[in-house]
């Protein structure tokens, strides 16, 4: 019984964590280029509502996903214009984006609140892999977007750390003067990183509204974008560790809801608080930072770059 | 110089940004935001004219709307003050929303436990309840930042969700009013827990508290040694610790004050407007307060008129709802206004100049739009 | 312009370069001609416009007027990329290196090699050139693990890898020991011998004389002369550089050192990254003497100064001021005990750039300028006015943010505040860095006045000439420890240099570090 419960928690934890993983990996890409994107929550909402609406129109969840990705990328482009070209403060700009997106998605999704989607992503057991004891049931009886994350996460890691593109991107986040002096385009790199990061956030949102909880509810991300930002610090800016952390955070979310089913007398409101409190506790634990953690943070994170300004 | 062929724009930093340009940029930002949002409304088939007319009627355009605007400005003054105080030390308190809720929670706890006290005593106790609640909620991220170095942005924000859930729990459980048959509403406050109105207006006397808070915060920040200290810490933390100012201690103090201000806003709202505790007591006052404070450049005085302006926006949302239009338009508009203001900031800090390239007889390279600007670079 | 007998070809010509910054004309109509195969020194004091001119040549700044010719052809250098393609490489004072990256990754950054990074191959690609650049560290070492001198070699390696024909070095010796500097000169000469053009930017006369073929002197943003090294001398150069004669000898009057006022015993402290930076430093300063602290940047001097000032907690050891234990005392208590600190970055630590002079003057004497909880701004303003007059500080107005002041006046304001508090011990970190000769002399005079009035001074500096001129004793800091100490009267540059490079005072002298 209890081992069965643990497996169900992890199965749900992977699904819950995948949203966080997508969003955190996107944020890692942006932050590695030196841009602190605090608008993730907003980009996720945009991805969620657009994905849901498009799927409802065309009855094709993959097109919904594509639309969600573009919506996240579009908002990210707006953020990039403001913080890269207009040198606006990255914190306020991110917040403004979230406020804007809450309003915009509420407005766009007004007519579909609580409407069930025509088609959704369903769980598929991967032949062969799903037969692995325990792990097979946890990792390989999931929906297609979870499998997509299994590909995207290592691919992102590989590009960041094993290719010239990744080297250039990281150099821009560590030392824009150096990248500039080496003839790389700081502006171009940051635009690209932020937009790709936004695309990931859009994907995270679309995953929520098309697979994890197929529906549209205003503000349905419920702070997951912010948790993803915390997750990036926890993961020391590595996509692989972000995946592990995402599943851990997801399992905490899943744990709460399972506790109720086994008849634990805790109010749903307190259970709903758990992911937020857990995130804060984790942030505190890791902020007594080691040397490694401080070295991992991109040095130019949060700073605009102007060549003739010192 | 005028732009002409062969000339290209570059940015040159202004040594001292002028106030006139700053005001102009704010105004253009406001107009631009309404224009862009109008296009969006038109494109999504709502008719910008009708929406804007309804918003005007719901806010400045009618006596009822005007009173509602002031009523919405009051909590905004408190949350914007909370943001502004924290920002003096370069702390981002994006948790004013949660502190507002916990302030309301504290005031409500007092109101429910001593409903029969004389009005002045109960109200004073509720003020204390609001201050303490908000201060405690601000203390958590403040202390984490001061003693563990945990950046305050994410914790302040996540605590908003926790605060809202806590109030949700109370109004669905211990404080629920049995008469409402399961709606998330608390029992109505006793008569003495309600702030009196100002004269024969619809505005409650919380406005005095708001204005007094703005004035006192302004005085404390500009005239006292403590205000000077936190300004030094905010401008240059290294210089502050070099001068012997304790950064952790002042950080905690600032977050206590910041949270207390937002908490007082929560008290004033339940005691002056809602007259009970309920779910969703705030339509995002904490977040709008960030915009108000930012646009007022974190000045405790300038944020008062700015709060009135955004109060009008907030209440115009309610008017839209009564007409069957989504009130989210208002939230969207707030975001767009801030976008424009942020973009405009570039022109406050930099001057656009047109000038020739390095060698004009080099036609193969097209003239790109350059972002390079010069600071006061002491050449060496 | 004097010319040698052999036929010469110019590699680069700068014609009529003008560069303005708000309120300053950094370069005013400067002409400069650089030849193939020469080491060309660009000499001038701080603020003369050397770095600006070279940044124009490196494509970082766009000139307001003038043209650049490479091998006689006009060229537009709109970005560093243009300059790299034109074969121009610059080694900045603040290195353009990505600290967490390896040497090889830094060298190959921006170069067109394969998209895939396979670690072994990257390193093999740079190994040969690394030797030529005189780099001893492995190409797979991370930059933050290297000494400053090694990091400089990585910059040179980058230039070699990009097949630079013109190499510009901005104040390259500021971070080196004298021996490392000598070794660098050898490398530069051999690069010139290969036909490259080396531009050596400096304000140090002796270095310029020993390394350059020709010397161009800038003063106040103007070109004041180009000379053959062989046909000039230091006095003539000094006159050109400053516009008047300057004294070379020590200004220090003999003095009587009193009791020990500051004693530091086995002090340990961590760097910002949490790594050990001060590792058992011990020293003592007496009343009425200047103890000079020499050392290459990054050997724990900043952390030591901060641990003394109370802004960095010591992890071990003891600090005594007039016999009282202040090891755990707050910065506030140390200030009250008579410790004044002139930190190395004026605007970063010493002053609040966004605030006006008065607000800066009351920074460390808040208790004197308050009535109850309220600020007494008026008394602080009066004191500021007095200081401005007494110390001859120039500023546009008392209410303007101090970041608008020039470096020299900022430093005077900082010193005025610190010295007017009648301190008993002064810690001065790089008090003349970035100042012109006039301001430097003024700062030196102020420090010597304090010494004469019985104050104990710890003078931290990278400028050995300055230390020799002012100090009674010179201690050398290396890797967080005091490597040795010499009295100024029998100090010799070579011995100090060896200690700066980690070769102990008592150890037999070894060959100079670096290739």
Please outline the helices and strands.
The complex is a heterotrimer of chains A (310), B (380) and C (515).
Chain A: H1 2-32, H2 40-58, H3 61-85, H4 90-108, E1 123-125, H5 135-139, E2 141-143, H6 144-162, H7 164-174, H8 176-181, H9 186-212, H10 224-234, H11 239-261, H12 268-287, H13 291-296
Antiparallel strand pairs in A: 1-2
Helix pairs in contact in A: 1-6, 1-9, 1-10, 1-11, 2-3, 2-4, 2-9, 2-10, 3-4, 3-9, 6-7, 7-9, 10-11, 10-12, 11-12
Chain B: E1 7-13, H1 19-43, H2 48-58, H3 63-88, H4 96-113, H5 119-148, H6 153-172, H7 206-223, H8 225-235, H9 237-242, H10 247-274, H11 285-295, H12 303-322, H13 328-349, E2 350-356
Antiparallel strand pairs in B: 1-2
Chain C: E1 10-21, E2 24-35, E3 39-43, H1 50-57, E4 65-70, E5 73-75, H2 80-85, E6 88-91, H3 103-108, H4 119-132, H5 148-161, E7 166-170, H6 178-193, E8 197-202, H7 205-211, E9 214-219, E10 222-228, H8 234-242, E11 260-270, E12 276-286, E13 290-294, H9 301-309, E14 314-321, E15 324-325, H10 331-336, E16 339-342, H11 346-350, H12 357-361, E17 370-371, E18 374-375, H13 377-390, H14 407-419, E19 425-429, H15 437-452, E20 456-460, H16 464-470, E21 473-478, E22 481-487, H17 493-500
Architecture overview:
The complex is a heterotrimer of chains A (310), B (380) and C (515). Chain A contains 13 helices and 2 strands, in the order H-H-H-H-E-H-E-H-H-H-H-H-H-H-H. With 310 residues, chain A is an all-alpha fold. Chain A has a single domain (3-294), classed as ABC transporter involved in vitamin B12 uptake, BtuC. Chain A is globular, with a radius of gyration of 19 Å. Helix content of chain B is 65%, strand content 4%. Chain B has helices at residues 19-43, 48-58, 63-88, 96-113, 119-148, 153-172, 206-223, 225-235, 237-242, 247-274, 285-295, 303-322, 328-349, and strands at residues 7-13, 350-356. A two-stranded antiparallel ribbon of chain B has the order 1-2. Chain B is globular and about 70 Å long. Chain C is 32% helix and 26% strand. The longest helix of chain C has 16 residues, at 178-193. In chain C, helix 4 (119-132) crosses helix 5 and helix 14 (407-419) runs parallel beside helix 15. The radius of gyration of chain C is 24 Å and the shape is globular. Chain C has helices at residues 50-57, 80-85, 103-108, 119-132, 148-161, 178-193, 205-211, 234-242, 301-309, 331-336, 346-350, 357-361, 377-390, 407-419, 437-452, 464-470, 493-500; strands at 10-21, 24-35, 39-43, 65-70, 73-75, 88-91, 166-170, 197-202, 214-219, 222-228, 260-270, 276-286, 290-294, 314-321, 324-325, 339-342, 370-371, 374-375, 425-429, 456-460, 473-478, 481-487. At the A-B interface, helix 3, helix 4, helix 10 and helix 12 of A face helix 6, helix 11 and helix 13 of B.
């Amino acid at each position: 019984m209890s081992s069965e419960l643990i497996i169900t928690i992890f199965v749900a934890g992977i699904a819950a964590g995948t949203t966080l993983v997508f969003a955190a990996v996107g944020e890692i890409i942006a932050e590695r280029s030196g841009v602190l994107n605090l608008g993730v929550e907003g980009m996720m909402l945009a991805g969620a509502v657009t994905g849901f609406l498009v799927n409802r129109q065309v009855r094709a969840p993959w097109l919904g996903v594509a639309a969600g990705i573009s919506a996240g990328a579009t908002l990210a482009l707006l953020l990039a214009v403001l913080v890269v070209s207009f040198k606006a403060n990255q914190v306020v700009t991110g917040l403004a984006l979230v406020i804007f997106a809450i309003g915009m998605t509420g407005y766009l999704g007004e007519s579909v609140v609580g409407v069930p989607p025509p088609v959704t992503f369903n769980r598929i057991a991967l032949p062969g892999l799903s037969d692995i004891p325990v792990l097979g049931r946890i990792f390989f009886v999931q929906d297609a977007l979870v499998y997509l994350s299994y590909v995207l996460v290592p691919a992102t890691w590989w590009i960041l750390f094993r290719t010239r593109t990744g080297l250039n991107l990281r150099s821009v986040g560590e030392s824009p003067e150096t990248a500039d002096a080496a003839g790389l385009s700081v502006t171009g790199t940051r635009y690209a990183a932020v937009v790709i990061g936004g695309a990931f956030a859009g994907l995270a949102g679309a995953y929520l509204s098309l697979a994890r909880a197929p529906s549209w509810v205003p503000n349905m991300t419920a702070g997951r974008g912010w948790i993803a930002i915390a997750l990036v610090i926890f993961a020391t800016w590595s996509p692989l560790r972000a995946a592990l952390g995402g599943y851990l955070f997801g399992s905490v979310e899943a744990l709460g809801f399972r506790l109720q089913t086994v008849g634990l007398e805790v109010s749903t409101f307190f259970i709903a608080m758990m992911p937020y409190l857990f995130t804060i506790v984790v942030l505190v634990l890791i902020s007594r930072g080691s040397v490694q953690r401080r070295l991992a943070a991109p040095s130019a994170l949060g700073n605009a770059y102007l060549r003739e300004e010192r | 110089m005028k732009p002409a062929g062969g000339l290209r724009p570059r940015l040159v930093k202004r040594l001292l940004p002028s106030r006139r340009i700053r005001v102009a940029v704010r105004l253009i930002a406001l107009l631009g935001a309404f224009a862009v949002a109008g296009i969006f409304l038109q494109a999504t088939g709502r008719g910008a004219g009708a929406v804007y007319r309804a918003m005007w009627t719901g806010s400045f355009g009618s006596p009822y709307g005007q009173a509602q605007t002031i009523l919405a400005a009051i909590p905004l003054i408190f949350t914007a003050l909370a943001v502004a105080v924290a920002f003096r030390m370069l702390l981002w308190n994006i948790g004013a929303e949660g502190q507002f809720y916990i302030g309301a929670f504290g005031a409500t706890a007092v109101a429910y436990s001593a409903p029969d006290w004389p009005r002045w005593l109960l109200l004073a106790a509720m003020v204390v309840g609001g201050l303490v609640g908000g201060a405690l909620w601000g203390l958590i991220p403040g202390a984490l930042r001061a003693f563990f170095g945990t950046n305050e942005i994410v914790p302040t924000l996540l605590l908003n969700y926790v605060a809202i859930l806590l109030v949700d729990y109370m109004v669905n459980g211990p404080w629920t009013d049995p008469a409402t048959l399961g709606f998330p509403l608390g029992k109505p406050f006793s008569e003495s827990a309600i702030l009196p109105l100002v004269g024969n207006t619809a505005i409650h006397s919380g406005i005095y508290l708001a204005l007094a808070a703005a004035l006192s915060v302004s005085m404390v920040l500009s005239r006292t040694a403590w205000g000077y200290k936190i300004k030094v810490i905010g401008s240059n933390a290294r210089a502050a610790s070099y001068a012997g100012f304790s950064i952790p201690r002042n950080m905690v103090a600032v977050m206590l004050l910041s949270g207390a201000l937002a908490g007082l806003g929560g008290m004033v709202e339940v005691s002056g407007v809602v007259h009970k505790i309920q779910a969703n007591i705030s339509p995002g006052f904490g977040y709008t307060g960030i915009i108000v404070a930012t646009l007022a450049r974190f000045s405790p005085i300038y944020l008062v008129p700015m709060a009135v302006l955004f109060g009008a926006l907030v209440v115009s949302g309610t008017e839209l709802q009564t007409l069957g239009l989504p009130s989210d338009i208002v939230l969207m508009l707030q975001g767009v206004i801030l976008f424009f203001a942020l973009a405009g900031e570039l022109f406050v800090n930099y001057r656009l100049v047109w000038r020739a390239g390095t060698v004009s007889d080099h036609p193969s390279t097209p003239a790109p739009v350059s972002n390079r600007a010069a600071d006061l670079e002491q050449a060496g | 312009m004097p010319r040698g007998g052999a036929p010469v070809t110019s590699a680069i010509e700068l014609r009529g370069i003008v560069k303005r910054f708000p309120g300053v004309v950094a370069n005013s109509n400067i002409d400069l001609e650089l030849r193939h195969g020469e080491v060309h020194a660009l000499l001038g004091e701080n603020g003369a416009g050397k770095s600006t001119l070279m940044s124009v040549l490196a494509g970082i700044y766009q000139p307001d007027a003038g043209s650049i010719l490479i091998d006689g052809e006009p060229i537009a250098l709109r970005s560093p990329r243009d300059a790299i393609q034109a074969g121009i490489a610059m080694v900045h004072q603040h290195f353009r290196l990505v600290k967490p990256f390896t040497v090889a990754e830094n060298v190959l950054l921006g170069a067109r090699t394969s998209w895939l990074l396979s670690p072994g191959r990257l390193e093999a690609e740079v190994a040969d050139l690394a030797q030529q650049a005189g780099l001893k560290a492995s190409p797979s070492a991370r930059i933050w693990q290297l000494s400053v001198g090694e990091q400089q070699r990585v910059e040179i390696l980058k230039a070699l890898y990009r097949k630079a024909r013109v190499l510009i070095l901005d104040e390259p010796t500021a971070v080196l020991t004298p021996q490392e500097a000598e070794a660098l000169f050898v490398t530069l000469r051999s690069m010139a011998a290969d036909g490259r053009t080396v531009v050596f930017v400096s304000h140090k006369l002796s270095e310029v004389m020993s390394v350059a073929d020709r010397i161009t002197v800038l003063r106040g943003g103007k070109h004041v002369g180009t000379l053959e090294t062989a046909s000039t001398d230091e006095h003539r150069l000094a006159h050109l550089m400053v516009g008047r004669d300057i004294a070379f000898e020590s200004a220090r009057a003999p003095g009587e050192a009193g009791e020990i006022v500051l004693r530091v015993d086995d002090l340990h402290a961590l760097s910002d990254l949490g790594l050990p930076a001060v590792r058992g430093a011990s020293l003592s300063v007496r009343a009425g003497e200047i103890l000079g602290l020499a050392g290459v940047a990054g050997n724990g001097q900043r952390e030591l100064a901060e641990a003394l000032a109370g802004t960095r907690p010591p992890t071990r050891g003891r600090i005594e001021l007039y016999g009282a234990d202040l090891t755990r005392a707050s910065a506030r208590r140390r200030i009250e005990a008579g410790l004044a600190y002139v930190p190395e970055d004026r605007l970063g630590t010493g002053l609040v750039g966004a605030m006006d002079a008065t607000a800066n003057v009351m920074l460390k004497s808040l208790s004197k300028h308050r009535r109850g909880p309220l600020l007494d701004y008026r008394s602080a303003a009066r004191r500021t006015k007095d200081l401005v007059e007494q110390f001859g500080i120039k500023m546009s107005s008392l209410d303007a943010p101090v970041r608008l002041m020039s470096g020299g006046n900022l430093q005077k304001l900082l010193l005025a505040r610190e010295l007017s508090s009648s301190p008993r011990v002064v810690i001065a970190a790089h008090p003349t860095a970035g100042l012109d000769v006039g301001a430097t002399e003024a700062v030196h005079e102020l420090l010597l006045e304090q010494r004469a009035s019985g104050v104990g001074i710890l003078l931290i500096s990278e400028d050995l000439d300055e230390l020799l001129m002012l100090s009674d004793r010179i201690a050398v800091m290396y890797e967080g420890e005091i490597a040795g100490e010499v009295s100024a009267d029998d100090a010799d540059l070579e011995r100090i240099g060896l200690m700066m490079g980690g070769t102990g005072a008592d150890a037999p002298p070894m060959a100079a570090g670096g290739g």
